[in-house]
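Entry 12.
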Amino acid sequence: MPALPGVRMSKPKNEPAASRPFIPGYGIPKAKKGMLPWSHVCERLESAKNYWIGTTDPEGCPHATPVWGIWLDDKLYFGGSPKTRRGRNLAGNPAVVVHLESGTDVVILRGKALQVQTPDRALTARLAAVSASKYGYTPSPEEYDGGGLYEMRPEVVLAWKEFPKDATRWRFEGED
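Predicted 3D structure (tokens):
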């Protein structure tokens, strides 16, 4: 996706710490050489059109849905009515996993997704600008006030393009 004038997509406060994931039996290298850069993850998340959101219901049953989303400032923003199964699941348990559509150029996020109760106008303006460019849809700032905007803060990210050679894990530390 081309850069938007005046809209900065990802500006990490502190780039997350990179390491190798623990996936026994698959020959993940131990050396840091060959790991993917964090910029690869940001580029994939910024350009993705669809994101698969995985939640669990109160009985522990998994639930997955594709959504449109916006990667901004190392967070994934996505929408949906709080009354949907996904919204009800997140209200009861904010733990979430996000996966992009590719099974070969993989990006997986694990963390928490919380509903943004009262988003500030600067954030909604940035989200609307990215949405217009990415999806051809420009929500008004007021549309974000009715609920249904979620902010997913990753805690752990996994990515690879040439598994297992470049399999990389990032951990976010000290999120506020």
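Annotation: Residues 1-11 have pLDDT under 50 and may be disordered. The CA atoms of residues 21 and 169 lie 5 Å apart.
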